[in-house]
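Work Package 4 report. The design task specified in the project plan requires that, given a folded chain encoded as structure tokens, an amino acid be chosen for each position. We show below one input record used in the internal validation round.
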């Protein structure tokens, strides 16, 4: 079974769809961080050092397994040479 067939099967499950929807913000945050890190040609360890944290914290953020504070995200943005932007979509 290929991924697309498997994904279609999973998306038929109501509970799976709910979990996917709930985890969307973490997924988007992780994608954004990974893209910014790659663009800056930085490792997780380099970001961690600049943000005064550890590499494991950056890894958890990139895998969507943490719920970071705004101040932590601001430190990450600064470590990347950028700024944090948060928005609401209605």
């Amino acid at each position: 079974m290929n991924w697309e067939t498997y994904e279609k099967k999973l998306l038929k499950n109501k509970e799976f769809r709910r979990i996917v929807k709930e985890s969307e913000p973490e997924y988007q945050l992780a994608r954004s961080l990974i893209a910014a890190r790659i663009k800056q040609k930085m490792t997780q360890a380099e970001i961690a050092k600049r943000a005064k944290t550890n590499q494991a914290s950056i890894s958890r953020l990139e895998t969507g397994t943490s719920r970071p504070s705004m101040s932590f995200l601001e430190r990450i943005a600064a470590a990347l040479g950028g700024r944090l932007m948060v928005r609401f979509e209605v």
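The mean pLDDT is 92. Validation will be extended to a larger panel in the next phase.
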